[in-house]
Design goal:
Chain lengths: 247, 206
């Protein structure tokens, strides 16, 4: 019987030491890393036959639009649902992302990403004490840019590869910065443009980008992250000058 | 101090970036050209040095245009290293390597400039030894000093020209990937040109 070999980095909880276990699962044509993890969960035995606990992982949409199953597959961060076994070298090495606290095994807590979205006010306030009516129209050109930016699924690939993003640094990272560009592009969101720019002009904001530009190389949704950052560099610079000369 | 740095984060970063180009980058280019007078022999070189040493307000210019900007750029450059967690071996994209080299060359440049300023500005001022062609040529008799200058020259030219590339992104001048690609070529050409001028002048003193 043809089998597939996996090497998985496991960890019981955040404060216990990680360890490696190898697994062997039956091969099926077209299988991906997630289907193999399901097979391991059905029969949690290591490759040398020892009983072990099932490997924990996160997954949701299984079509690379939710970002939940992001992990490091053979040394490169990506979504495991779209990681086809046929295209991977064996043993397939699975590790949790390193920039977020491990919950268990391959499951990490990406709360920091959602905190970053809150910090940069990545939403459009539309509530009023009366009906505000329709907002201004969005030009087709801006729709085009906005669509590309709206594909972000908060998966964390851009942060995993960012040399400026880690537990010592307060950097919000490329994903949240790009959302500032998205919401400032929207004609209604534009009304809070300066407020949003302010959120990224302090410590951990846009100035903490080191221009290594790894983010744009690994983004599974091909979001022009470095263009977003450079665009925000222009906007924050112009805003800072305006603020200085008008103060 | 820490609180002040946190509150003025944006301003400090922008000043740090600006100082790297003006005045530091402009001074670097001026300095490399002045060095090149060494190619015309000791007499021409010494004459130019004397001209510079005879400039009015020299000390004020040295402090205001050279010393303080370098001190600010170096001090905060070292502080910013705190946020550097390298992964160029794992994700070996060319831009990632350039990010890494920017930091490595910055640290080398700091040690080099420290040595260079001590040896040819402060020590000579304290002891009264004249700064001229022979002093430089004499220092280069020691191969270690010469190789250190070679390394320092390569590091500083890289740090400046890659820094110009980053400056253009950082100030929102080159925004899209095509503009950034073209600026890569322009900065690389500037770097190679300055490297030629810098190294050619080094050899004039051997």
């Amino acid at each position: 019987m043809k089998t597939v070999r996996f090497k998985i980095k496991r960890q019981q909880s955040l404060d216990t030491a990680p360890y490696w276990e190898e697994f062997e699962v039956p091969y099926r044509p077209g299988m991906n890393v997630i289907t193999a993890l399901y097979d391991i969960a059905k029969n949690p035995k290591t490759a040398d036959g020892k009983a072990t606990s099932a490997v924990a992982w996160d997954a949701n949409c299984l079509e690379e639009v939710c970002g939940a199953c992001t992990m490091i597959v053979n040394g490169k961060v990506r979504q495991s649902c779209s990681a086809l076994v046929d295209a991977l070298q064996q043993p397939i090495c699975l590790e949790p992302m390193t920039k977020f606290p491990v919950v268990r095994d391959l499951r990490v807590n990406r709360k920091r990403m959602f905190d970053a979205l809150k910090r940069v006010k990545a939403w459009i306030p539309i509530d009023g004490t009366y009906d505000l009516g329709e907002g201004p129209k969005l030009s087709p050109q801006d729709q085009h840019i906005g669509y590309a930016l709206s594909k972000c699924m908060t998966c964390g690939c851009c942060l995993e590869v960012c040399p400026q993003y880690h537990d010592r640094s307060p950097f919000v990272g490329a994903a949240a910065l790009s959302q500032v560009r998205l919401f400032n592009l929207h004609p209604t969101g534009k009304m809070q443009e300066e407020e949003r720019l302010e959120t990224i002009m302090g410590e951990g904001g846009i100035e903490d980008c080191g221009n290594a530009q790894n983010c744009v190389r690994v983004c599974p949704k091909d979001i022009p992250l470095t263009t977003s950052i450079a665009d925000l560099n222009r906007k924050t610079t112009a805003y800072a000058l305006k603020k200085f000369f008008r103060s | 101090m820490k609180k002040w740095v946190q509150e003025h984060h944006f301003l400090i970063r922008k000043i740090h970036s600006l100082l790297g180009v003006v005045p530091m980058g402009v001074f670097l280019m001026e300095h490399l050209i002045t060095n090149s007078f060494g190619k015309f022999g000791p007499e021409v070189y010494n004459e130019k040095i004397e001209w510079i040493q005879g400039l009015p307000y020299l000390l004020a210019m040295e402090i205001g245009i050279i010393f303080l900007p370098i001190l600010f750029h170096a001090l905060f450059g070292v502080v910013f290293l705190w946020a550097w967690k390298d992964n160029s071996l794992q994700y070996s994209y060319s831009r990632n390597w350039r990010y890494t080299f920017q930091r490595v060359t910055g640290v080398i440049a700091l040690f080099f400039i420290g040595y260079h300023v001590w040896k040819f500005r402060i020590e000579t001022a304290l002891t009264g030894i004249p700064v001229n062609f022979d002093l430089v040529a004499g220092a280069f008799q020691n191969p270690l000093v010469f190789y250190f200058y070679f390394l320092g020259m390569v590091s500083i030219v890289y740090h400046f020209t890659n820094g110009v590339w980053s400056f253009l992104v950082h100030w929102g001048i080159t925004v899209g990937p095509r503009a950034q690609q073209i600026s890569t070529y322009v900065c690389a050409a500037l770097g190679l040109g300055l490297l030629y001028i810098g190294l050619d002048a080094l050899w004039a003193f051997v």
